Structures are given as structure tokens and as C-alpha cells.
Amino acid sequence: VLKVRKVASETSAMQTVRTIESAEVNYSSTYPVNGYACSLATLGGDPGSGAATAQAAQMIDPALAASGQKNGYTFTVTCGGKTTDDGHDTYTSYQITGVPQTVGRTGDRGYCSDQNGDIKYDPAGGTNCTEPVQ
Q1: What is the largest CA-CA distance in the chain?
Q2: What is the C-alpha to C-alpha distance for residues 42 and 54, in angstroms, rounded to an integer?
Q3: In this structure, what are the phi and psi dihedrals at residue 90, rounded to the nearest 5 degrees?
Q4: What SS3 string covers the chain?
Q5: What is the pLDDT of residues 35-73, one digit of tens each?
Q6: Which candidate, 122, 103, 79, 119, places its Cα nearest to that of 2?
Q7: Per-residue b or e along 83-103, where b marks 16 or more CB atoms closer than 10 Å to that residue's CB
Q8: Residue 1 has pLDDT above 90, yes or no
Q9: Could you tell me if 71 and 15 are in contact, meaning their C-beta atoms sit under 8 angstroms apart?
Q10: Which residues contact residue 94 at a Cβ distance below 8 angstroms, ignoring those fewer than 6 apart?
Q11: How many Å from the N-terminal Cα to the C-terminal Cα in the chain?
């Protein structure tokens, strides 16, 4: 039963990374002056609170954006490169990570992606993602 749950959690984690990737692409198109979002909170936001903004884009589930957790995995978004024009930063790269909350129990693999859109995994459950997801 534990193995089936881990496989389900890993499948969910890969899908969540894809969802965050899609949100990043949409964010950069919607808010090109900002580039990519630097946090899950920026991609999230409560749809009941009014119109989406660059600080709360309402592009991912608010629960994921608030906690960073889903189905036994913890997700983060960090920004990489940026350009600065007239004192305003535009982020040109990002990294998404999804790691098991308890390696061996909630999942065995860590998942990563970036602005190139390739999802890779770390067989040890961390963020050293070198293996491509098939």
C-alpha cells in the first residue's frame, strides 16, 4: 500500500511542477515587465479577493500557494537571473523544486524544472535533479 501511495504522490508532484511551470509562462506573458514570478504566493492569491494582480496572480491553487505543500511534497519557486531597468527588476529565470516531505515514505524522488521547461528528478529525493523524466 505504501508503494502505491508513493507512486501516486510522485505522479502528483510531477503534475504540480508542470502546473507551476505553466503558471510561470502565463505570468511572464501577463506581467512582462516583471518577467517570472519569484514565489508560489505571487502565482497564487484568493480568487474571491478581487482582480488578479502582479503580486497575487491567481494562477495556481491558493492552498498550494499559501503552504507550498501538496500530497506529501513541498514545492518552492526561486528566481535566478534578472535585469534592472530604471530601478525595476525583471526576472529572466526561475527554478521550481518539489521534494518529498519524508523521503522513502511520501516519495522517493525530488523534482525540478526551470524556464527551459524540462522536468528532471533527483533519485535521492533532494534538489540535485540530473535525471530527465521520461
Answers
A1: 56
A2: 7
A3: -120, 120
A4: CHHHHHHHHHHHHHHHHHHHHHHHHHHHHHCCCCECCCCHHHHCCCHHHCCCCCCCCCCCCHHHHHHCEECCEEEEEEECCEEEECCEEEECCEEEEEEECCECCCECCEEEEECCCCCEEECCCCCCCCEECC
A5: 999 999 999 999 888 999 999 999 999 999 999 999 999
A6: 103
A7: eeeeeeebbeebbbbbbbeee
A8: no
A9: no
A10: 24, 36, 37, 38, 77, 78, 79, 80, 114, 115
A11: 24
Residue 67 CA to residue 98 CA, distance in Å, equals 13
Chain CA centroid to CA 125, Å = 16
Phi, psi of 47 (to 5 degrees): -60, -20
What is the gyration radius of the CA atoms in the chain, in angstroms?
15
| Total-model pTM | 0.93
Cell readout for 30 is 501577463
**Which residue shows C-alpha cell 496572480?**
57
